[in-house]
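Message: Study each token:
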Amino acid sequence: MVTPAPEHLVDATGRPIRGVFEDLPRSANLEDARLPGHGRAWSRFRCKTWQHWAVISPEVFLGVAVVDTRYLHTTWCSVVQDPAGKSRHFEHAHKSPIAELRVADDLWDAHTTYRSAGYVVDIHNHVDAGRHDLRVDVSARGRLPAVRAELTVWHDPKRIQPLAVALPVGDGVMYSAKFVVPVEGVLKVGDREYGLSAASAFAIADVHKAHYPRRTWWNWATFGGRDARGRLLGLNLTRNVHDDADGLNENGGWVDGRLTHYGPALFSFDRARPLEPWRIRTACGAVDLTFTPHGERTENVEAGIVASRFHQPWGTFRGTMRCDDEDVVVDGLIGVCEDHEARW
């Protein structure tokens, strides 16, 4: 059941409000939740938060993330040139417990930032003004070229429905907001400049806060692009530690801003060979897609009590997804999948 979003995700008594929402809450204040047997200080420490933006055009893919795990500040700026063909990939990444970092508390008028020497990301989330402004200024390092971007993401919440949910995970709550929106501006990679047009480029937002369990896992698939009729399509499917996907989930597809909600997601792939094709479906039968990877981001970190293992291939999706009783054809749209396990 989809309901209007509350003004605040956590009420004055510390009670989280769970559900699938038809719009965005004004405040995703999960840090104020009172978890069973603990006070708000523990809730703030447990709350992991991030913003990830995937900017996709036929010529280039830019993935930018700012992540606060409370004890470690992390960011990356990942670039794939020619993402649907002979891809060329590189990535700038920083991890530091002391870097200047802020993840916006809301999407209406607040900044997400990461600043250190030679590395600046500033995202002005400003839904009240119908836009998000993304600025990236990352210096060249070794053989990695500089990356600079000045981008405007156009986001009319009355026309583009968000996929916004607050789901139970363990003894806590996971909040997620996702949407697919047009983007324009300039992205410069080394000496090459890409002019992005809202007619052919778009951004996929992944806004996240969660009291994740100590051990966490998820599978994720997302893409965006235009179909043969010029309509902007998008998809988000997730399978994760939340164990009531039949009742509540963060699965949906967009056609020109209109969102269709789906049932549980089903992922079929070879974990040992993540660059082989994946089959991605929904239990309700609305989605049936093949994802063909062209390359991947990967990490395998074991650092004492903390660990992270993920594969995030990028590539192309083909198949169908049902939206408003129409079987929409997906033919070569660019996106990513992810297989992730973490110990926080």
About this structure: The longest strand covers residues 172-189. The chain has a mean pLDDT of 94. The radius of gyration is 19 Å. Residues 214-344 form one domain.
